Fold this protein.
Amino acid sequence: MKKHILNYTKDELAKFISPKFRVKQLFSWIYNKKVTNFLEMNNLPKDLRQKLNDEFTILSSQIVSKQVSKDGSIKYLFKLHDGHTVEAVLLLMKPTVYNEDGSIKHLPKYTVCVSSQVGCKVGCAFCLTAKGGFVRDLSAGEIVEQILQIYIDNNIESNRKVNIVYMGMGEPLDNLENLAKAIKIFSDVEGLSISPHRQTVSTSGLSSKIDKLAKLNLGVNLAISLHAVDDKLREQLMPINKAYNIASIMEAVRRFPVNLRKKVLFEYLMIKNVNDSLDAAKKLVKLLNGIKAKVNLIYFNPYEESEFQRPSYEDMRKFQKYLLSKGIICTIRESKGLDISAACGQLREQKLQEEQQR
Ligand code: SAH
Ligand code: SF4
C-alpha cells in the first residue's frame, strides 16, 4: 500500500527527499496550492514527481456526505481507506460581511471540529460516539486530511486564521502521539500555518495524559469536558472518572502551562434535571477557585433513544448568571448546526442506520 504523505512532518520528509528545499516546495504544493496530484507539481524534477507518485498518496479518504446547516455550518462525513467513517464540522462563527458596494468587508470566521479516533473507548453515557464502541485511532495524516479536505471544499486560503477544536469523534489524548504530530503539521508555517494557540484539545480528563501533553510543550489550548461537579454523578455519566477523578483532573489542569492570555476551557454539558441545578453551579465555582478558567455551557443534544433531555433556556441562563456573578467567564454554546445534528457521532450514526435499512 502507498504511504500517506499527510502523515509526515517536513523534517521526516527531509530524510528521504533532498535537497531540503524540495520538501518546502512539496509542502507548498499540498497545503498552499492544494494540488492533490504529484505529477502536476511542475517545479519538482520529473523523477521526483514520479517517485512520489509511485510511493505516496495525498488524499486517502473521501467525503461521502455533507449536511449544510441553516447557520452556514457544514458537517462532513469522511470514508477512510478501510471503509470506516468519521465526522468533521466546519463551523461558521461569523459570516462574510459585505460593504455597500458589494465588496467584502470581513471574511468569514471558521472553526473546524475534527475527529481523532473511529469510535471512542471512554464510553460516556450521553455520547453517541461511545455507543458504537472503539474501532481504531486515526493516523496523524487522517486528522490532517479532514482539515485539508474542508479547506479544498470551501476554497479556504492557507493563510486564513482558522481555529481547530479536537472535539469530534474520539478521545484525542487516547491517541496522543498522532495528535501531537497533527498539531505540528497544522502549525507548520509552510503548511496551513494554524498556530497551536488556535488549536484546542478537548479531553474527558485523562489526567496522566494531560501531564504528558503538557510535557510536549506544544502551546495548544486545553479544554476539559467536566459535565459534573461530584465524583458520584461524574462516574455515572463518564465511567473514566473511576480512573481519573475530579481532583486528579484539577491537579493536572493546575500543572498545565497555559498561554499568558488564555484560559483553560471547561465544557459543561447541561442535562435536564441531572446536572443543571444552581447547587451544581455553586460547586463548580468552588472547584474552579484559583484556576484561570472559562466555562462553556453546552445544551445536551438529544438523539433517538437517548435517555437524557435538553435543558431549558431559562435553566441555562440561571446557571450562567450565577457563574458570571462570581466573576467566571461563562458562555452558552450556540447550538451551531443543531439542525444538522452537530453533536459528535450523529451524522455517522444516521448513515449507518440508512445503510442497514437498505
Ligand atoms: N472526547 C473528547 C472530545 C470529543 S467529544 C471529550 O469528551 O472532550 C466533544 C464534546 O462533545 C464533549 O464535551 C462531549 O461531552 C460533547 N458531547 C457528547 N455527546 C453530546 C451530546 N449528545 N450533546 C452535546 N454534546 C455532546
Ligand atoms: Fe469519547 Fe468524548 Fe464521547 Fe466521552 S464524550 S465517549 S470521551 S468522544
Q: What stands out?
A: The radius of gyration is 21 Å. Residues 123 and 130 are 5 Å apart (CA to CA). The chain has two domains: 3-57, 62-357. The chain is about 35% helix and 20% strand.
